[in-house]
Amino acid sequence: MSQQGYVAAPPYSQAQPGMGGYQGGFGTGPAQPLYGHYGGPPQAFTTPPAGMLKSPASSAAGMPPPPVSSQYSPNVQQNGAHPQRYPSPPAVYGQPTQSPYNSMASRGPPPSQQLTNEMSALNLGNYGPGPMQSPPPPISSVAHQPFQTPPPPAMGQPQMLPGSQSLNMSPQMSSSQSPQASMSMTSPQMPGPPMAGVGRPFPGPPPPGPGGFQQPGPPGYPQQAGQFGGHMAGPQPGMPGAFPGAPGSLAGPPQKKLDPDSIPSITQVIEDDQAKQGGQVLTTNIRGQVPPLVTTDFTVQDQGNASPRFIRCTTYCLPCTADLGKQCQVPLASIIKPFASLPKNETPLYVVSHGDTGPIRCNRCKAYMCPYMRFIDGGRRYQCGFCSCVNEVPVFYFQHLDHMGRRVDLYERPELSLGSYEFVATLDYCKNNKPPNPPAYIFMIDVSYNNIKSGLVKLICEELKTLLEKLPRYTQEDVGFVTYNKVLHFYNVKSALAQPQMMVVSDTAEMFVPLLDGFLVNYQDSRAVIYNLLDQIPDMFADTNESETIFAPVIQAGVEAFKAAECSGKLFIFHSSMPTAEAPGKLKNRDDKKLVNTEKEKILFQPQKGVYEQLSKDCVAQGCCVDLFLFPSQYVDLATMADVPSHTGGSIYKYSNFQVETDGEHFLRDLRKDVQKSIGFDAVMRVRTSTGFRATDFFGAIHMNNTTDIEMAAVDCDKAVTVEFKHDDTLNEENGAFLQCALLYTTINGQRRLRIHNLSLNCSSQLLELYKSCETDSLINFFAKSAYRAILNQPLKNVREILVNQTAHMLACYRKNCASPSAASQLILPDAMKVFPVYMNSLMKTAPMLGSTELSTDDRAHQRLSVMAMGVEDTQLLLYPRLLPLHNMDVSSDILPAPVRCSEERLTDCGMFLLENGHSMFLWLGQAIPPDLIQSIFNVPSLAHLQGDMCALPELDNVLSKKVRSIISGLLDKRPNSMKLQIVRQKDKPEMLFRQFLVEDKGLYSGASYMDFLCYVHREIRQLLT
């Protein structure tokens, strides 16, 4: 078959020699036991049998299937040829061969990395060629191969292994070894105090708490920790390095002798990926394609699989069997961000309308028409790619097939040729079978004493005048206003009125909306009356001394207003204190520091049951999303107050000890971002999968009424849902695995739509393929969310233990089954996961995971809830902040200075560094910083003259000042949340706050340094392997 002629059109559904296609066979075999962190028989580390050494055939999305014995493909050649596999010869180091694929669009060759630097107790060293894999597995010669590439080389020429990324890449190296980083690490028993008085980092065997799962482990060992529950083999006494729950002091050789440059670095991995794939176009026509990192700038061209901006996976190659999954313990999950913002140079989603018939769906599994449906019978029927059911094609949708078995109108129909698109939903998809009304926004302002005195109410009223102009309108939409303290005040702002009218509801137990006409109004029509109201509110309550507030009835009032107007919408609630007034949802202080580090610590994170639980359900049923802006000066039981926002797709913002001068701009930036986000209302999402695996668990700002429907009162461009998958049968290498995320929602102008995202993954019976296709940033997103959910029912100690244990287990399985034989003292890491330990150690040092009485309970609960709704790029930045040196940057360049590692060792006394993690931002100034630098940034002669509470840089007319301010404002624009700039001087007291973000160092409250953690994990791995 000729390869020319298909270059211009998106080439993902044409048959190519050597490309396996999709075929929807499904088996009715018995379900395998679930794997991973769930129960099951004890599983030893075993090498896969010889039959498993077949590499997956990679194929393009939507391709006709290969000729298997299928009654639907009589013409073998037409439906694509068999995948060809060329075994690679073993690598010979003396005679390097140059592969013809060096300039492939997929990733380059995977040399091993070896870190060896002799030292008495701990050997860590530089990167270099690692030991050779022997014998190499046969490699699918066309895996990940884009379509327009030279034909495969003759047999016997070594192939590149795709999907690996490595430091010191040498093109001359043969790539038949597995990509890996190896470090020589001997960890003898160091003299040192036993940790926490016991010879284990976490004293006592953890009882599996409620929701804890026992973990299968190698026979003859204590049971391994499961995902949150189960036992762990205890380490030897006196392990080097402090660890969560251990004293900070550390006997043994001082750390400074170690060379930190010899261990894998996140900044280096990010830089390498940007150098390799930055600025390139990613075409999504290849099944199981591993995308560039979230930190890399690239452009996506949709050609049959959803953009990684919408869906990222923990691995792009699923293990074929549950047993294999259980053996490696790599969680299988997708992080789905259905409303992700696309850059300006990428095409927005196409909207498809099939008129009154509505979207075409499979009769059996109800999957929507997509590139994985295969048309047969001359185009009269199609076979579903998810369940293999054969469906009739509706008459209006019929189209002839070409000589390749593809529809002639393939490229004219987004649903047949793209990974993501939208359908216009018919009335069957609407409540009560009638079209929805456009959503409305209600602003609810707490006018109690604190908020009036701080100037907050005046600030909000002033801002709303300009903000309402910027509402994301297609049609001008309805807005309403409520103020409250112990009672609620509703305002009639009908355009016919000269003055706004206020109606008071003091019976908060039986909430109702006192006026229907004039409460929710069109902003443009009633602008004059609304301005009048916003001017009057601060004066109306200026003399108030009411300090008690209510909270649940406020949300109830919003829900009732939306019910009466028969619409969905969003409540913006600006609230300052714990609701202590007599009313439903009244809260009392339960902040008990004595619970920290005990079995009962989990109570601090659990919301109080009752009123708020029911309120969440009412909100979701009505499509009422709640955004909560909190301005507390003391404990407010955030775990309970934020329960409704965190189940309705809402956001929680917290400004402790709010002062207009220092925090005003920070709060207003958050409010503006929030109001202008692209958003869908009254949403229901379902994730369908092809046979062999299914979605089993869901994490996010969501509500689940049943086991499959993810309900969200609203979903915006920053909210992500993490979905975990489990096997329920064997997967097939040839067919791969498909998932389809379907989101039904109401647009901002009241249209009901279905947003569809499709993704195809590879399957393999070789663990090496799975490890090569892993994505560390997605893995850590999954682990963060599952750990943060687990701390609701289990002691923190257990959860931390399980995290370490699963880290060791994943890496030990790689070492045993995929890496070349090498000395036990070497730590060998898969290339795609070589920086995973940095993120995992950082996760264990986050506020929710630290049992420290010095941390505020509300702050811990806030971070826990924020992370549950985060996408991959947000968790990546949170767990590894960006540290930028600003003192020696090129002011004429547009590029940001290269970030340095998050460690105190990288700071210099005469330097100026900017650190940001998406929620906090610091400008750190070294004590020996040159006075002229201080003069050009702050307009003061020296560091000593600097004001302590400065929260913005002065606007000065010099190149350095302009450059630094443009970097800061660029970062503020880019992140979903605003960040308050904090200026810290070296050796000043506030510097302690800054230091807790240097995640490679020892934690401020507890927690190991990256180096100690790596040694500890290495010992756990050796223990698992011996």
From TrEMBL:
Residues covered by region (Disordered): 1-262
Entry's Gene Ontology cellular component terms: COPII vesicle coat; cytosol; endoplasmic reticulum exit site; endoplasmic reticulum membrane
Membrane topology per record: Peripheral membrane protein
Domain Sec23/Sec24 beta-sandwich as annotated: residue spans: 680-764
Name recorded for this polypeptide: SEC24 homolog D, COPII coat complex component
The organism's place on the tree of life at top rank: Eukaryota
Organism, scientific name: Monopterus albus
Primary location recorded for the protein, binned into one broad class: cytoplasm
Gene Ontology molecular function: any one: zinc ion binding
